[in-house]
Amino acid sequence: MIKAIAFDMGGVIIHFDENKYYEYLSKKYNIEENKITSIMIPLINKFDLGEITLGVLLDSISKNIGIKLPRKSWNYIFDTDATIDWQMIELIKKLSKNYKIYMLTNVNRSRYFRTNTMLKINNKLFDKKFISCYLHMAKPDRKIYQYLIAKTNLMPNEIIFIDDLIENVDGARAIGINSIVFRGYADLVSKLKSFNIL
User: Fold this and answer.
1) Fewer CB within a 10 Å sphere, N or C end of the chain?
2) What is the phi/psi pair of residue 82, to 5°?
3) pLDDT value, residue 119
4) Angle between helices 166-173 and 142-152 (to 10 degrees)
5) How far apart are alpha carbons 83 and 99 in whole angstroms?
6) Chain segment 158-196, per-residue pLDDT in tens
7) Residues 78 and 9: beta-carbon distance below 8 Å
8) CA-CA-CA-CA torsion for 16, 193, 166, 51, nearest 10 degrees?
9) Mind giving me the DSSP string for 71-98?
10) Residues 6+ apart with CB under 8 A from 137
């Protein structure tokens, strides 16, 4: 019996393509995008795990690509392009009447704060949040799914997990959590119905 539904944030509730930031830097500073991504992605992964601060992230990027990267550029692209999927918000509200609702997401503190404040996601939507930068663990590492199970006092088969990345879904499935690859609102509703959720 399903008792809880855990949602990823980026790509499911919040829509923002981090590649837009890489494209912005590439065009602004005339640097090959693949060079930027090769430098940034490992640093972003550390940032999402809470291992480095935003200042360290930007200083490291600046040093490695030979420019002075202003802090405002990090927030500018996100503030300009990030959007909330309001259909998903309404769906979560509906589901919360019968199920515990959790957030399980890989995100750094900077993006998480801006999501909560600027985009005004209602914290009351979620019974509990599992955020990579605070837990110092991230999907698809099995430890974060085990942590979710332990902290909710649920069995894996009592949870449905929804994420847009197949590797994260596969990680959850590997320990027995029912999981859905997010492919848009209509597809998700159809898949939830197959679980007799809606």
Assistant:
1) N
2) -70, 140
3) 63
4) 60
5) 25
6) 999 999 999 999 999 999 999 999 999 999 999 999 999
7) no
8) 60
9) HHHHHHHHHHH-EE-HHHHHHHHHHTTT
10) 49, 143, 144, 147
Least confident of 86-100, 109-123, 148-162: 109-123
The average pLDDT across 76-105 equals 94
Mean pLDDT of 9-36: 91
- CATH C-level class of 4-15+84-194: alpha beta
Tokens for 52, please give them.
């480095």
Q: For residue 126, how far is the Cα from the chain centroid?
A: 14
Q: Domain boundaries in the chain? A: 4-15+84-194, 19-81
Q: Give the burial class of 165: count Cβ atoms within 10 A of its Cβ; 0-12 exposed, 13-18 middle, 19 or more buried.
A: middle
Calculate the dihedral angle through the C-alpha atoms of 136, 142, 144, 148, rounding to the nearest 10 degrees. -170
**Pairwise CA distance, residues 60 & 40, whole Å:** 9
pLDDT, one tens digit per residue, over 49-65 is 999 999 999 999 889 88
Pairing of strands 178-181, 4-7: unpaired
34, containing H or E segment: helix 33-48
pLDDT band for position 150 (50/70/90)?
very high
